[in-house]
Each structure stands twice: as structure tokens, then as C-alpha cells.
Amino acid sequence: MADASTTIELDRAELREVTGFTVACARPSLALFERERPGDRRPRAAIEAALAFADGAERTKAIRDNAWAAHRAAQETRDAGRGAARAAARAAARAAARAAANTCGAAFLHPLAKATQVKHILASAAYTAHALELSSGDGPDAADDHLARLGLLATPVVVDVLGRYPDAPPGGGRIGELVRRLDASLRQSPPVR
């Protein structure tokens, strides 16, 4: 585990892999958002932009623009009292934000080994899990089910990148709790491929 004074190496292939993971984590939330706001494609566009980067496209301003648009969709659903849709839009925004980061550390995932950076890797998963628990009658069980499935999605590269950072930080309410649970789970039982 790294400490706060350590810089870490992140190459473009690793960033693409992490972005692909964040997209896979956020995708299940799209149906929840689109059920509440069927004509609003902003979260879907953010996920599609992030996926394009994960699949090999270059980063463009469009990725960041789509991340901000999904964030605005989250604000609007919050204002409308739609908690699950808000969490779903935030999941999409976080996936695109992950793609917008660059290899020298600007934007969101920095090559500094600080615990706060773990949220940039796992927030799309936490927001999706939260959206699922808010929208289902199962409550926390829905979040648990989603987090359990993510262990299958995390590739060795994702777990390796995550392991370069300190454990997820305290605080952050329910999202912070979900980030810490997923972080601990991925670090305890890395995927075998």
C-alpha cells in the first residue's frame, strides 16, 4: 500500500481498463434513470463517451462535456426529488469523468497515492449500488448484490491500479460506505484470470 507522499505510475492502457470497469459498474443504472426521465440521454451519452475511450478512442473535450451534462442531469433529478435517478446520473457522470482524466494526472484520477483517489475508481459502482437500493424494495440487499457482482468485473489490472492507492478514506455518507466496502472486497480477494 502506498502512502500520501508517493507518486504512482499510470499508463494509458491502465486508464482505459479502469474506465472500462467504471462503465461496466455504471451501466445498470441507465435503466433506472431513463425510467424516470425517458427523453434525457445525458447519462447514456456520458457512459458512451467513456466507453469509447476505454475501447481505444482518444480523449476529447466531448468526454468532459458529457460528464458535466450527466452531472447537471443529476442535479435536476435531485431537485425533482428523484433519489434513484440522481444516483444513476451521478454514476454515469463519474464513469465519464474517469475517462476525462489524463495520464499526467489532471482532472480526476491523479498519480498521487492519496486515499481520496480511490473514490474516482469506485464511485460509479457506489452510485449505481445506491440507485439500485433506492429503487428496489430490497434496499441495502440490492446494493450488496450489485457490489458482489462487481468482483467479477474487476480485472487484475483494475485491482492492481487500486492497490497502488491507500485504502478508501472515511466519511462520505452512504456512498463513502459503499466505496469502502467495495474497496475492501477487491483488495481481499483479487480476481483470478
TrEMBL record:
Keywords: Exonuclease, Hydrolase, Nuclease. InterPro entries: Imm5-like (IPR048667). It comes from the Bacteria. GO terms for molecular function: exonuclease activity. Residues 14-101 form the Imm-5-like domain. This is Exonuclease SbcC.
